[in-house]
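agent> call fold_tool(seq_1)
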Amino acid sequence: MAAILSSLRNTVIAGFVLAAVMFVIYYQSQGYSSSDFGVYFFRWLHVISGVMWIGLLWYFNFVQIPNMPNIPDDQKPAIGKVIAPAALWWFRWGAMSTIVTGLIVAYMSDYLMSAITLGGGGAVPKDMFIGLGMWMGAIMWFNVWFVIWPNQKKALGMVEVEADAKAAAARTAMLFSRTNTLLSFPMLFSMVAAQNLF
């Protein structure tokens, strides 16, 4: 067991193996419908991706940013040079994977256009709620890729800029990260409501 848990790679592989075992149990007890399982599989990937993305968003906003002033100056480079770049890599690709798998689920479930148009002319409440969640998620994804990440590269020194520009980039990244934190609560409400209240 220590060989599995001592390595993140082995831990993740073991987690996916256990998920495959769960699939076999499901298959033996319920049978298999490829269309139903396909939607479920992409929804599962969507949730995994979303947990990675929003979990890191909340880590940045609830843990890293508030505690940076408490870290001695000589230790801050470890955050900026090692931890933050790694976390931002998973953060960006978690966002990308979340939006791609979400769009696949919406397409496979035949509500993509109705959700994008917030229920269309019929104002279907379920589609309106999932659509609101999708739009908020799209705004958050845009913020990650086109505002937060470019500004974080400057703030972390991955892109050379003047000290004033570096400070401004850090502030911009923080404000858009806070915007995403704000949007994460109604976005998750909309997504969960669409799946459970209608």
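agent> call fold_tool(seq_2)
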Amino acid sequence: MADERRRGAPRAALCSPLRARVTGRIATPAVTELSGLALSRTQPGVLWTHNDSGDSARLFAVAADGRLRAELAVPNATNIDWEEIAIGDATGDGDALYIGDIGDNLGRRPQIVVYAVPEPSLGDRRGSGVTAPARRTALRYPDGAHDAEALLVDPQSGALVVVTKSFDGEARVYSSRPRAGAGTLRRAGRLSLGAGEAVTAGSVSADGRTVVLRSYGRAFVWTRRAREALPAALRRAPCVAGSDLISEGQGEALAVNSDGRAFYTVAEGERPPLRRYAVPGS
């Protein structure tokens, strides 16, 4: 793939050789098919995740060593096919968790839904509880139904960005208006990642400079310029993270850290391992 440096963007740190290690396993029996991962920007070491379709509307907060911190029901939400979770600014103070009910294996859903809840403050909390009621945003594609597993929140504008899943390597990028309510997404570009590279997750670093999309086997990385919209960054050719993900199995979750020098992943299945891939020394 083309090197981003040819177009004036520095090569991402994650595209150098990475150190990979298992940091722990998520052993709680309720975790069976994880399909989203987000790293808290305000609570060190806290990762948010959820099960795929067929589960109730609930979130899990876990530590980096896999320990369950909390299991929280999400009022005013339904899990049709939850595929992704992201963190962004809330409409008020603090951060919000954005849950992407965007899966559509059969390509039949007339609309997708993104739920937003203020990020719960865990403190010393353990066990079960509830989040604040979710704010529901229904969205439509301008050109019919699509299956998707990657949801990004633009840290500058608050726009929602959805990247579709296709095994021909031709993903489509759609974006909402900044901080928009329900409505129709707009076409914002295409990605040509190569045959078989279906996009299964995505994440943006807290500083907004590093954007990562993953497939089952690889992670693709973009360096974002100042004041650049996310879809514009994705129009450039990415570099590829310096570590192979294929041995994870069915990996549909990734969360990049605050400075874009490491990311966590977790695969589906019982007692799944949490993995951290990092630039040496990070």
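agent> summarizing second result for user.
Confidence is low (pLDDT under 50) at residues 1-8. The two ends are 26 Å apart (CA to CA).
agent> awaiting next instruction.
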